[in-house]
């Protein structure tokens, strides 16, 4: 089994940027958001079940899932949200477990926005939290999607101080890219050393 570093952080904290910097160093990423898209690709059992439950109106002309329409359907409907989670979570977990087991880099970065909320820390050797001030998170979310309700999304996530309590390491993403790269390179050396120790 690979040495697993769980990467998490609130929305707009910059998880993807940090993950990409690790990938540039040759580290395999297992990204929950990417896997969540893969399990509802055309031809998958995930998409077939969604269409059967919600109807074909949630399909785009090319047969892809209209993720925005699905989000709207479930965001304020707890029953539908629970149904969707019950369908997708086992598919996503199974796919992620397979990718984690097959990762060939010295350690693997497991990128999960709700790593802590979903109780996945226990499956990680280390937990790395990407941290940014709430005002900065809000700015980044709105820069990406003007219509996003950043406050509502942030309210559904773990409070910042609570998230930090789970961290073995923290990346401060409030500065510039050069600073971020330096932090990632420092952590990379640490994780290589820890992973080598685990293999002994």
Automatic annotation (TrEMBL):
Task: Specify the domain of life of the species encoding this protein.
Answer: Bacteria
- Database matches in SUPFAM superfamilies: P-loop containing nucleoside triphosphate hydrolases
Protein name, per record: Dephospho-CoA kinase
Summarizing the function annotation, the protein's role is: Catalyzes the phosphorylation of the 3'-hydroxyl group of dephosphocoenzyme A to form coenzyme A.
Q: Which residues bind ATP?
A: 12-17
Q: Which PANTHER family match?
A: BIFUNCTIONAL COENZYME A SYNTHASE-RELATED, DEPHOSPHO-COA KINASE-RELATED
* Catalysed reactions, semicolon-separated: 3'-dephospho-CoA + ATP = ADP + CoA + H(+)
Q: Where in the cell is it found?
A: Cytoplasm
EC number, UniProt record: 2.7.1.24
GO terms under biological process: coenzyme A biosynthetic process
Quote the pathway field.
Answer: Cofactor biosynthesis; coenzyme A biosynthesis; CoA from (R)-pantothenate: step 5/5
The Gene Ontology terms for molecular function here are:
ATP binding; dephospho-CoA kinase activity
Q: What family is reported?
A: Belongs to the CoaE family.
Keyword field:
ATP-binding, Coenzyme A biosynthesis, Cytoplasm, Kinase, Nucleotide-binding, Transferase
Give a Pfam family name.
Answer: CoaE
InterPro entries linked: Depp_CoAkinase, P-loop_NTPase
Of the GO CC terms on this record, one is: cytoplasm
